[in-house]
UniProtKB/TrEMBL annotation:
Keyword Membrane: yes
Keyword tags: Membrane, Transmembrane, Transmembrane helix
Stretches that traverse the bilayer: 21-40
Protein's UniProt name: Transmembrane protein
Keyword Transmembrane helix applies: yes
Length: 43
């Protein structure tokens, strides 16, 4: 845990793109989920 915290402190917020990946993937997953629900509802 200390290694991870040190790595995050060294890189900083701008150099840690994990939250950007999460923000990029979440809408795609939400659209896919809604598409599946719509397809199941239509079927």
């Amino acid at each position: 845990m200390s290694v991870l915290s040190r790595l995050l402190m060294k890189q900083g917020v701008l150099a840690s793109p994990w939250w950007q990946r999460v923000l990029a993937v979440l809408p795609i997953c939400l659209l896919l989920w809604l598409g599946v629900l719509w397809a199941l509802g239509e079927g």
